[in-house]
Amino acid sequence: MVIGSLICVFCDGRDLARDRGSRVLLCRGCGKEVWLTAGSFFHRKKLLRPWLAAIWMMEHGVFINASQLKRLLNIAYSSAHYILRSLACVVEEQSSSASELVPSSVFLQIFARRSSETPAREHPREEERVLQEQEESHENLDNLPVDLSGLPDAQQEVYMHLAQGPLSVDHLCARTGLDAGPVMAALTMLELDGLIQQSSGVCYERVMVALQGPFSEGALKAIDGAIGYVQRVFGGISRKYLQSYIASYWCSTDKRRWGPGDLLEACLRRGDKPTIFMTPLMVRITV
Fold first, then answer.
1. Judgement on whether residues 240 and 103 belong to the same structural domain of the protein
2. Which residue range(s) make up the domain with 75?
3. Does any domain span residue 127?
4. Residue 166: pLDDT above 50?
5. What is the total count of domains within the chain?
């Protein structure tokens, strides 16, 4: 088969030929071979048909999860999951100026699956708390997700030490240098304010703060839509991949932007760049 729309990277010739099913092009001008997928999004992808099938389904608004893709294409679950998340990352990279940043904590209710980032022996939602605490450890009080400026010094100090995880009264006394009376008083007031809670009976821990707006009406609608989409199609997800699932929702519902051929074109334009799956504390959602 002669390929007339491609150019040889060695001699700029257009007289290229390819055997059916092959990724290798033969330039009849210089006699050299050119790999069709080299340096592209499909570089080192062994089987292209599952990728192209997933692209077609996403472009045509087919809601599908990794388990369904695995059964449909007879591939490994890990391969199906990687294909869907990678394609979603391509979509996310095309976010326009119409998108808004919202805290990942507004999606807490759909964090139900573990990932490599989930703390050992903890619920998947704890991944959000750990990331918030890591962020806070590099910031001052003015940048915390809750306003502590109006609280007494003892309450502020106790709250800051609880960033390390659940602590008992004795541990808090040792770390703050305060007597048991002031520590208990601070814990009582923080608990009444809804900032902390008892954990395992004798320890106290922070209450994870779900940061709120103000969000635009479009953002609120998009958040509700993305949550409903995840619950219907996937049941629940891990926090690590949240941003890619939001992108999948956008691709599957916005057919003015993601019509037939649009996702494939975005993949071809992207090239062979590394894919980053880790979701930050602020996620982008298209309104």
1. yes
2. 43-119+212-287
3. no
4. yes
5. 3
Neighbours of 68 (CB within 10 A): 15
Cα–Cα dist 148/132, whole Å: 16
Of 213, 196, 194, 205, the closest CA to residue 105 belongs to 213
Claim to verify: residue 201 and residue 75 sit in the same structural domain: no
For residue 96, the surrounding DSSP H or E stretch is none
| pLDDT score recorded for residue 23 | 75
Residue 114 forms part of a structural domain: yes
Structure tokens at 247: 């992108």
Can you give the pTM of this predicted structure? 0.66
CA 88 to chain centre: 10
43-71 pLDDT, tens per residue?
Answer: 778 788 999 999 999 999 898 999 999 99
In a shared domain, residues 219 and 102:
yes
Interatomic CA distance for residues 75 and 66, integer angstroms:
10
Per the prediction, the chain carries an average pLDDT of 83
